């Protein structure tokens, strides 16, 4: 798996940690921490408003 995201809850908000596998070291490196908006192009383009996750109404 070349990419993975770790998603955590901070109070009422979601925080996404995005990681990518470095083929030379075969270790995962952090490529971004996203608080209000997850906007990233790899492994596919995505744009999510994280402030709306978990809200009701």
Commentary on this structure:
With 57 residues, this protein is mostly beta strands. The protein is elongated, with a radius of gyration of 13 Å. 0% of the residues lie in helices and 60% in strands. A hairpin with a 5-residue loop joins strand 4 and strand 5. The mean pLDDT is 91.
Concise summary:
The chain has 57 residues and is mainly β. It has no helices and five strands. It has strands at residues 3-10, 13-22, 27-34, 37-40, 46-49.
Poorly predicted runs are: none
Summarize the amount of helix as a percent range: under 10%
Helices and strands: which structural class? Answer: mainly beta
What is the 3D shape? elongated
Radius of gyration (CA) equals 13 Å
What is the topology?
Layout: E1 3-10, E2 13-22, E3 27-34, E4 37-40, E5 46-49
Antiparallel strand pairs: 1-2, 2-3, 4-5
Which descriptors would you attach to this protein?
mainly beta, three-stranded antiparallel beta sheet, 57 residues, 0% helix, two-stranded antiparallel ribbon
